């Protein structure tokens, strides 16, 4: 299978180039695995300031569109490349695709599936990762601010102001940035992320494991424990994900599958680099839902 430079050359030399090349590689992967395949790609790395690059409720329309016509009895491989987003939107997406594919969902992470993307990865029966792939902490964010940071800020203010009122003006200015009940919302989001991942691991990846409770609790703590991850953007490697107990399939163990996955990945990244597209949801039957950069 071709690499990045060869795919770029193929795109330049193909009529209706970029869409045809991208879809042809997605179709080749689906034929090889004999499974329905959906690619979910966000262009947050190419357009950091763009809107709608995150996982949000508008994505449901995309999944509804691309799943139409698929043979759902074949199972689904969902390719994820995303910075994450709303836990509530992730919950709705997971519920929908599990119902459509009877829980036979495998997640493929060619490069990055962070935050709510990691949550969705945990909903599958297994996760395919390569040596270059990463998941991330599942602690949620609001407007780019990790909820654990919000929690820590309020806790620090409470502790300091209980001892002295010297800095009350400073803390008033700082905390007044947040709307009423914002701390409660942040705490609820932290709790929801852990709750959803725990439920998803129990009902699919570890459904037949007699010792699943202890394993699942360890995984959730490792993925949503702020003291372990420190930074919301921290990258968890394939080795880390295997060590904490997730069911990981190593991409490198099947050279043909690896080549097919990486060719799909390169073609989607090329699409995001060459145009004004910020998100693509596309299935192996040629249906696509594409979000354009709003200027």
Mean pLDDT: 88
Low-confidence stretches: none
CATH architecture identity: Alpha-Beta Complex
Percent strand:
5-15%
How many domains in all? 1
> Order of strands side by side in the largest beta sheet?
9-5-3-2-1-10-11
Bulk shape:
globular
Structural class: alpha/beta
**Oligomeric assembly:** single chain
Q: Total helix count?
A: 12
CATH topology: 2-enoyl-CoA Hydratase, Chain A, domain 1
CATH H-level superfamily title: 2-enoyl-CoA Hydratase, Chain A, domain 1
The CATH first-level class comes to: Alpha Beta
Distance between the termini: 36 Å
**Total number of strands:** 11
How would a crystallographer describe the biggest sheet?
A: 7 strands, mixed
Radius of gyration: 20 Å
What is the chain-wise order of helices and strands?
A: HHEHEHEEHEEEEHHHHHHEHEE
Features:
295 residues, alpha/beta, 2-enoyl-CoA Hydratase, Chain A, domain 1, 50% helix
Descriptive notes:
- This protein is α/β, with parallel strands linked by helices.
- The protein is built from twelve helices and eleven strands.
- The protein has a single domain, classed as Alpha-Beta Complex (2-enoyl-CoA Hydratase, Chain A, domain 1), CATH 3.90.226.10.
- A seven-stranded mixed beta sheet has the order 9-5-3-2-1-10-11, with helices on both faces.
- Strand 7 and strand 8 form a beta hairpin.
- Helix 1 crosses helix 2, helix 6 crosses helix 8 and helix 8 packs antiparallel against helix 9.
- The protein is globular, with a radius of gyration of 20 Å.
- The model has no long low-confidence stretch (mean pLDDT 88).
């Amino acid at each position: 299978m071709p690499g990045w430079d060869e795919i770029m050359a193929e795109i330049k030399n193909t009529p209706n180039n970029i869409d045809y090349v991208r879809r042809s590689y997605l179709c080749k992967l689906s034929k090889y695995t004999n499974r329905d395949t959906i690619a979910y790609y966000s262009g947050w790395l190419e357009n950091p300031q763009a809107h709608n690059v995150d996982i949000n409720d508008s994505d449901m329309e995309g999944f509804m569109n691309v799943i139409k016509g698929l043979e759902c009895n074949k199972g689904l491989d969902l390719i994820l490349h995303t910075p994450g987003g709303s836990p509530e939107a992730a919950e709705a997406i997971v519920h929908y695709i599990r119902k459509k594919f009877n829980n036979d969902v495998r997640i493929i992470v060619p490069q990055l599936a962070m935050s709510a993307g990691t949550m969705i990865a945990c909903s599958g029966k297994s996760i395919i990762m390569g040596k270059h792939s990463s998941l991330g902490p599942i602690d949620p964010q609001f407007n780019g601010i990790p909820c654990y940071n919000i929690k820590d800020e309020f806790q620090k203010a409470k502790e300091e102001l209980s001892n002295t009122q010297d800095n009350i003006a400073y803390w008033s200015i700082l905390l007044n940035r947040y709307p009423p009940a914002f701390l409660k919302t942040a705490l609820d989001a932290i709790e929801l992320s852990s709750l959803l991942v725990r439920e998803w691991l129990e009902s699919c990846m570890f459904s037949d494991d007699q010792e699943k409770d202890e394993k699942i609790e360890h995984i959730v703590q490792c993925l949503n424990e702020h003291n372990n991850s420190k930074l919301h953007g921290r990258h968890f490697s394939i080795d880390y994900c295997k060590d904490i107990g997730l069911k990981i399939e190593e991409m490198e163990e099947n050279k043909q599958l690896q080549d097919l996955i990486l060719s799909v990945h390169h073609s989607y990244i090329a699409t995001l680099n060459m145009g004004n597209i910020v998100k693509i949801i596309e299935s192996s039957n040629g249906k696509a839902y594409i979000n354009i950069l709003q200027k």
